[in-house]
Write a structure and sequence with these properties.
Elements (H helix, E strand, L loop, with lengths): L8 H12 L2 E4 L6 H15 L4 E5 L3 H14 L7 E4 L5 H10 L2 E4 L1 H10 L7 E7 L9 H12 L5 E5 L6 H10 L4 E4 L14 E8 L3 H23 L15 H16 L5 H26 L1 H17 L3 H8 L1 H15 L5 H16 L5 E4 L3 H11 L7 E4 L12 H12 L5 E4 L14 E4 L6 H8 L8 E8 L3 H30 L17 E5 L6 H8 L3 E5 L6 E2 L4 E7 H9 L2 H12 L2 E7 L12 H14 L4 E4 L2 H19 L14 H10 L5 H12 L2 H6 L2 H4 L7 H12 L5
Parallel strand pairs: 1-6, 1-7, 2-4, 2-5, 3-4, 5-6, 8-13, 9-11, 9-12, 10-11, 12-13, 14-15, 17-18, 18-19
Antiparallel strand pairs: 14-16, 16-17
């Protein structure tokens, strides 16, 4: 089955392990992890000729790379291979699944296909998971692996990564989530890998912040010091002054949440709310310091502009206090001066010198520059392109609000052009770190060190794949760059020690055990209709784990239907408070009450609703009272998706024991009045809903008259425009089935 490929010794050794056990393969970048999967795919298809092979990876460019490897080295007709990404419609994916033997897919779309029942995993004899370190938390890999092991006739899992992380808890979580029974680890120094490793020289280029930068740094540090001292004085912080400089954002957010919880539980102390506000100020200025020290004036200036605009429009106390502070204003004035005088960060100056020299010395060289922030990456591209010999191109993730972005199609086009040599410098954010196969990249430049072993290894792995490579790391002295350098270094060392420890105890802790599930007689499944916009929810996955039958449909007035009379509005703690603030909540409660005999609200989250945002507890209590008393809608509070799903299943089971599971999306209330039936029928027309149904009926007096009304007559009703009127007439006038 395999052609034009001779496996290396270490690949054969690792392959032998993979044939017998679910294996996590940790191998340096460029050492042919995909080829090990290729070998195992051929082996599994020989054992189970009627089975399918499934290989999942996080991005479309990676999926295309897998496909190209199989086209080159696997003897199979191309029509027996299929690619599933967001660009392939669900119906087409279902059709391709039936015919294909080898499928390459991103996990999110595949997850939706399994949830909706469009595809089944029973016949998959091998599941390959690239960038396996992502298999933590609620990432799609985790649920898909669980479903695969539970459903497949002949399960075998192969996880691939260059860097699973340094924390033992995270690595153990990956192994547990992917049902790993064995780990195969190779480093650059292992004797069977060493002959194939290309030398990668690492240079640290150190720069010093100029005095004008240090002036801004000084004022921002004074701002932070004043607030830290207040928190210490109030007893909120008990650390030594020397420990306070680099408290990370995660710790600050956790502390802020604890304080909100205390305030919500009834502690009447002005210090709590003042401390919450101070913590918000500290986090914003810490971000400003990072931009100044590691990125440059342009990035900091843009951030300050954003804060100034927010101060005018927001009611948030933290922003207003921050922008009034004398140290902040001093830093702002100094930054505006630096920006107007076009003073650049010394790292940017050094970067231009390095790239201009390298491009001049080697016209065909390819260089990748990694930068943490999109805005700064764009500035780097603009600066580099001022040089006649440098052709730089930005490579970032998909579009975010008010930011630069690229679609996956555009990303692929840029990578193809880079491979072809149509430009010589690729400036990338984190999206370029994972698995991108660009041969003959001569130099990789870190614009800043990053405190992550995984990302450091991945960045470094973009060079030295087919020939010698170089890594250049730019580092500003006496800044957090220095701390990040050593953080990544120690984490990488710890990673290999941790892997060795886990490998020794894998047989005891993670080997998959047979269960009695297949011997337990199945009970009749409860059915839950779920709004299609909830398809990414962890609740759906837990419902499927609990044996519920899921139907994804469009529901206008609820998120889950458990019977003809029970409609459920689901919210996370954060969404509940946000919808209270923006006014959506009451409208949603009205519609829920109008459309269901037994409406229910479920609020999910470990964090209680009082500690989510700076909203006075009495405002939240008032809303809770309004929902339960005025609207008569009960509220259930749950901690996580599993608890939510358990509640929903129990309610659905009770309901369906009486009336069965054959209820429809338009079940609505029982024993509706004639008026309610009329509103219900008109409300089902496209774009109408329960609120607009009433003015239509008031205008035309009957359902018949609404249906017979012309487009012009329909538009006489407020909020019915030409597009909505046309859609209504299409439904009422077009012949059925056309």
């Amino acid at each position: 089955m395999i052609k034009n490929f001779e496996p290396r010794l270490y690949q054969q050794t690792i392959f032998n392990t993979c044939t017998g056990k679910n294996t996590l393969v940790v191998l340096p970048t460029g050492m042919g992890k995909t080829n090990i999967f290729l070998m195992l795919a051929a082996h599994r298809l020989r054992l189970y000729p009627q089975s399918k092979i499934l290989f999942i990876g996080p991005t479309r460019p990676l999926i295309d790379q897998y496909l190209n490897v199989f086209k080159e080295h696997f003897e199979i007709s191309e029509d027996k291979m299929a690619v599933f990404t967001g660009y392939v419609k669900p119906e087409k994916r279902a059709e391709l699944w039936k015919e294909a033997k080898i499928i390459f897919s991103t996990p999110q779309g595949l997850e939706n296909d399994v949830i909706s029942g469009r595809i089944t995993l029973e016949d998959v004899s091998l599941l390959g998971i690239d960038e396996a370190h992502r298999a933590v938390g609620d990432y799609a890999y985790v649920w898909l692996a669980g479903q695969y092991v539970k459903r497949a006739k002949y399960p075998r899992i192969l996880g691939l990564t260059a860097s699973p992380g340094s924390e033992i808890e995270k690595i153990e979580e990956v192994c547990k989530n992917l049902y790993i029974e064995q780990i195969e680890v190779r480093t650059d120094m292992d004797p069977d890998v060493r002959p194939y490793i290309q030398e990668v020289k690492i240079d640290w280029v150190k720069v010093t912040l100029p005095p004008l930068f240090k002036d801004v740094q000084k004022y921002l540090s004074l701002f932070l010091k004043e607030r830290m001292q207040k928190l210490k004085k109030w007893g909120i912080l008990r650390r030594k002054d020397s420990d306070l400089k680099y408290i990370n954002k995660t710790d600050l957010l956790k502390l802020q949440g604890e304080l909100r919880g205390r305030a919500a539980s009834g502690e009447r102390d002005f210090v709590l709310w003042n401390a919450i506000s101070l913590l918000a100020e500290i986090m914003k200025i810490q971000h400003a310091v990072e931009l100044l020290e590691t990125q440059g004036v342009s990035a900091l200036h843009k951030y300050f502009e954003k804060l100034q605009k927010e101060a005018i429009t927001t009611k948030t106390k933290a922003i207003k206090n921050l922008t009034k502070d004398v140290n902040y204003r001093s830093a702002l004035i100094k930054t505006e001066r630096l920006f107007s005088e076009r003073i650049q960060h010394p790292k940017l100056i050094e970067l231009k010198k390095i790239i201009e020299k390298e491009v001049k010395d080697d016209k065909g060289i390819k260089i990748i520059v990694f930068n943490q922030y999109r805005d700064n990456a764009l500035d780097i591209v603009n600066e580099l392109n001022k040089s006649e010999e440098v052709k730089a191109q930005l490579f970032v993730g998909q579009l975010k609000k008010e930011e630069t972005g690229l679609s996956q199609k555009e990303q692929k086009e840029i990578l193809d052009k880079f491979r072809e040599g149509k430009f010589n410098v690729l400036v990338a954010t984190s999206v370029g770190e994972e698995g991108l196969d660009v041969p003959q990249v001569g130099i990789v430049i870190f614009y800043e060190p990053i405190p992550s072993a995984i990302r450091t290894i991945q960045r470094r792995g973009r060079t030295g794949r087919q020939e010698k490579g170089r890594v250049i790391v730019l580092m500003a002295l006496e800044t957090r760059d220095v701390g990040y350098k050593w953080s990544a270094h120690h984490k990488e060392k710890r990673m290999y020690r941790t892997l060795d420890r886990i490998k020794k105890k894998l047989g005891i802790r993670f080997s998959s055990q047979p269960t009695l599930e297949k011997y337990v007689p199945p009970e009749s499944k409860v059915r839950v209709i779920v709004d299609h916009r909830e398809k990414g929810s962890g609740v759906i996955k837990e419902l499927i784990e609990l044996g519920a039958s899921i139907n994804l449909e469009k529901i206008d007035n609820a998120d889950y239907l458990l019977s003809s009379r029970v409609g459920v509005e689901f919210k996370t703690s954060e969404d509940f408070v946000n919808s209270l603030i923006d006014g959506r909540l009451l409208q949603q409660m009205r519609e829920l009450k109008e459309n269901f005999e037994r409406p229910l609200v479920v609020v999910e989250g470990e964090q209680d609703v009082y500690s989510v945002r700076n909203v006075h507890p009495n405002a939240i209590r008032g809303m809770l009272a309004n929902i339960t008393i005025s609207y008569g809608i009960p509220i259930l509070f749950t901690k996580n998706p599993r608890e939510t799903a358990s509640f929903l299943k129990i309610i659905a089971k009770r309901e369906q024991e009486e009336e069965g599971s054959d209820f429809s999306l338009h079940g609505g209330k029982r024993e509706m009045s004639l008026k309610e039936w009329q509103e219900y029928i008109i409300g089902a027309l496209p774009g109408v809903g329960s609120i607009l149904a009433r003015p239509l009926l008031r205008e035309f007096k009957s359902v018949k008259n609404v249906v017979n009304a012309s487009e012009d007559d329909l538009q006489k009703v407020e909020k019915v425009g030409p597009i909505k009127a046309k859609k209504i007439k299409d439904v009422t006038d077009w012949e059925y089935g056309v």
